[in-house]
Amino acid sequence: MDSSGSGMQDIDGVRGTEVKYIHNGFHFPIGQALEQLGLQGAELADASFGTNKPTTRRPPSCLREPWDVSGAGFQMVEIIHATDLDCSPLGLSDGDIVLGTHSEPSDRSRQVYWTWTPEDPDHIHALDFEPTPVHGGCMNAAGVIAVIHGTGEHPEGTVLDVDGRSRQLEIPAGMGEPSLTAMNTSGEVCGSLSINLDFSDSDRSRPAFWDSNGKVHIMTALAVGTSGRSVDLTDDGIVLVWESYGVLGSAVTLWNPRTGGVSQVPGAIIPTARAESGEILGFNRENGRDVAVMSRDCQEWSDLPLNNGFAPASLNTILTIVGNVRSDGYTNGWLLRRGENHPNLLPTFRYHNTRPRHINAKGSIAGHLSTDNEQHVVLWTPST
Q: How many CA atoms lie within 13 A of 32 on its CB side?
């Protein structure tokens, strides 16, 4: 009955037992289980541990065997399957269009950009860029795409509008290593840039913002950190920033690139996403394992109803949260709906690591599955 992979049981000195991770990795006190059996006031005199999971060996190659232990109400569609190559989802529109990359077969260091649409589910469509050793991108809700391409010495950023037009993102001379993390409905983009090309400088990363004309704004003066990067961007033009310093120091900052205004959110939190309504999602690593938290007022952080180790990745406009957790030797994807008190594991392929990356307004999720030498990009869509 334990899906944590560690069989953890804490037995105290007064003949009591606390069973952890009894259901889908979620904490379930034994006292509550006894009450549901009508045993109020009963004393637990003995306890044992067992599992119904077989000790079968993992097959040498992917069998695409469906694995849905939660019945979370999602269908999973495989978009691409790569063997001895890399592939990754970069963005998801509200129309379930997926932006992604995969390695060029002849040179794994070079990536090919592509899109996938539900109208043509059996094919991916390569974008008109040469395979590139510098890569990264994002997509907004309407399907506008931004990607990095070119070379390490001369990186380029390009935005592709849905009407076929394109525009360039400014990368100042003497700066490089651009990354793109989010785009809002106005076509503004956030990401990061290295403010110098000295690779020995571990503090060279700074948050960056490109307006709808491609002009770049750089947050050169951080609030408390020695380096930082943009995490998310909302329609009001506010950038969610993760600042870091020292070995484990973290800080959350809200940055208005147009005015230069900076507001620090208290707490040593690593942020992962910000909702349009202002809630900030993140996690705290002070206790050794990721603790998922949310701030609704940019002042206080509240723990989410998740056990330690449930790392949050993203959320959508109705505050449905997705993330991953390590259990049974694999990384599993999970979903927590607003108002619910426990998560559900997402369906996957057996013996695969599962990482949801993006969730859109209607609850579809783009993510990544992997084994030792095989990878998949998948889309989960709600069954109802």
A: 7
